Amino acid sequence: AVEVEAGRGAFGNADYRDIIRMSLMVDARFMVLMQPLAYRTGATTKSAYASSRDLLDAIYASQRLALPFEGALLVGY
């Protein structure tokens, strides 16, 4: 399952939503989430990639939420 987020995906917890949606896909063995390295809007800059990396690290470290994937790939662009 592949999800490519645009700049607006950096806000509004889009990465949470994407992970859950991909987890619900039947027969999806791998997850690929692509996030911009940084998104700038006005005077605000958000590091979407780093935020998603921290989220995935927390999910896998806690082992409370078992994702149904053999592997997960986070790509920053």
What does this structure look like?
This protein is an alpha/beta fold. It has 2 helices and 5 strands, in the order βαβββαβ. It has helices at residues 14-23, 48-62; strands at 2-4, 30-35, 39-41, 44-46, 71-76. The strands form 2 sheets. It has a 3-stranded parallel β-sheet with strand order 1-2-5. A two-stranded antiparallel ribbon has the order 3-4. It is globular and about 40 Å long.
How many extended strands?
A: 5
Q: Please list the strands of the largest sheet in the order they lie side by side.
A: 1-2-5
Write down the Rg: 13 Å
Q: What's the end-to-end separation, in Å?
A: 18 Å
Order of helices and strands: EHEEEHE
Proportion of helical residues: 25-40%
Count of DSSP H/I helices: 2
Main pleated-sheet profile: 3 strands, parallel
Strand content: 25-35%
Average residue-wise pLDDT: 90
Structural class: alpha/beta
What is the approximate shape? globular
User: What are the segments in which pLDDT stays under 50 over at least 5 consecutive residues?
Assistant: none
Looking at how many chains there are and whether they match, the oligomeric state comes to single chain
